[in-house]
Design a protein that fits this description.
The protein is an alpha/beta fold. 35% of the residues lie in helices and 17% in strands. The longest helix has 19 residues. Bound molecules: NADP nicotinamide-adenine-dinucleotide phosphate.
């Protein structure tokens, strides 16, 4: 038993000299060592996937990252152990990707060069989910699948609160596709292959700052009251929460949003104030496009022990 703690070590303790506390410490070290050298596949090394790959490479894991674009292969090779040039609907490539992996993270989204219509969503999310489930049947080493989904599956609640137990009602076809992909993966969950779905708010962080999204509106008059709630999550927290989900072997659905719960008006006000830009005015009498407004609870993930790095919006 002790040899298995570290088979390469010359340290061979005499069991009679060990008390239980010492034994537990050795077993902990064993599990930490196993976790220190996992094989991890990140399907979709984009904005989040790259940050995640970078983090895990630093930790000493063997990370395989995917891209659909041969022009990105060379740059990705700089910070993953292995690059796969593949799309999620390629069954053979998916089978190769998952072979020998311990953890698979799915972080796919249509690329910026694609027309983001329903057909693209189906190929990107549904075909990928179906192929992955199929490939997992031949990949007994995979212990956990972490799938990045979106809070858009809750649909419009006119500013009301939802949590993971709330029934979803995706109002538009693309969100319906996301929820179908969630279902496909959840149904494949088993004792040996856990599936964790993280429902993300809007992603922001380095290179995707709020000033770039809202700054162009400065000084304008916008229709409506700006009372729609938009939930955000910083990329640092996405990386950290995925690692938390992996280390704690989370399964099931978890919302991943920060605590800010601000309306669009409040968010734009903060951005304009921070950057010394002219304020945005609102015209309540003018009809605004009705879009999703919902307050997302993050209590389940917090109750599991996760602490947000950026609980409030970084402007
Ligand atoms: N953006 C948001 O605000 C937001 C909100 C909620 C949830 N999410 C979810 O969060 C995750 C990460 O988002 P992100 O912003 O990091 O995405 P991203 O930067 O757009 O990266 C997406 C990755 O998916 C790859 N990809 C595209 N189509 C594919 C296909 N058919 N098969 C396999 N891979 C494919 C892309 O390949 P290339 O390398 O070739 O580009 C890229 O590596 C995604 O699952 C997204 O749905 C995003």
């Amino acid at each position: 038993m002790y040899n298995s703690v570290d088979e390469n070590s010359s340290f061979e303790p005499n069991i009679s000299e060990l008390d239980m506390a010492h034994l537990q410490k050795l077993l902990q070290q064993q599990s930490q060592r196993r976790l220190l050298s996992e094989n991890i596949a990140i399907l979709g090394c984009g904005y989040v996937g790259c940050a995640l790959a970078d983090y895990w490479q630093e930790q000493g894991h063997f990370v395989t990252g995917t891209t659909t674009n041969w022009k990105r292969v060379a740059s990705l090779s700089g910070f993953v152990s292995q690059v796969f040039l593949m799309k999620g609907d390629d069954a053979d490539a998916m089978e190769s990707l998952v072979q020998g992996q311990d953890t698979v993270v799915v972080s796919v989204a249509p690329t910026s060069s694609q027309v983001v219509d329903e057909a693209t969503y189906e190929t990107t999310y549904l075909a990928t989910a179906k192929n992955l489930v199929q490939a997992l049947n031949q990949a007994p080493t995979v212990k956990q699948i972490i799938y990045l989904s979106s809070c858009s599956v809750y649909g419009d609640r006119q500013g009301g609160w939802v949590d993971e137990a709330s029934p979803i009602s995706p109002s538009e076809p693309r969100s319906q596709i996301l929820s179908q992909a969630e279902q496909i993966l959840l149904q494949a969950s088993s004792e040996k292959q856990k599936v964790c779905i993280l429902r993300l708010g809007g992603i922001y962080g380095p290179g995707r700052e709020l000033i770039n999204m809202f700054g162009g509106l400065a000084g304008m008059t916008l229709p409506g009251k700006g009372d729609r709630v938009i939930n955000w999550i910083h990329r640092d927290d996405i990386v950290e929460a995925i690692e938390f989900a992996r280390l704690n072997e989370l399964e099931g659905i978890y919302n991943l949003v920060d605590d800010s719960q601000l309306t669009v008006k409040e968010q734009i006000e903060r951005v304009c104030f921070h950057y010394g830009l002219p304020p945005v005015h609102w015209a309540p009498s003018q009809l605004s496009l009705r879009r999703q407004s919902v307050r997302i609870s993050n209590q389940k993930l917090k109750a599991a022990g996760y602490r947000l790095i950026h609980p409030q919006l970084l402007i």
